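Researcher: I'm preparing a figure for a lab meeting and need a structural model of a single chain. I don't have an experimental structure, so a prediction will have to do for now. The sequence is pasted below. Please return the structure as C-alpha cells so I can convert it later.
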Amino acid sequence: MYRVEIEAEAERALRRMPRNTAKLIRSKLLALAEDPFARNRNVKKLSGRDAWRLRIGDWRALYTVDTNNQIISIMAIRPRGSAYD
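Model: Understood. Here is the structure written out cell by cell.
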C-alpha cells in the first residue's frame, strides 16, 4: 500500500472548498493508495509530464508516484477547467 502525501498547494485547495467536497476528495485520495494506476478509479497518465490525474467529479487531483518508496505526492487539486494550466 502506498503512502499519500498532500503538498501545501493541494492542502490549501482542500481547506477552501466546501467540507462535503473536501471529504469526498480525501476519501478518493486514500482509496488511491491501494493502487495509484488503477483505470477503474478515473486515473489517467498526463501527456508530456511524469504525472497522473485523478478525476473526482468536477475536480482534478494531479499527482506523482514514487514506486521505489511507495509514495503518492498530491501536487494540486483544482477545478476541471483550470487543472492543467
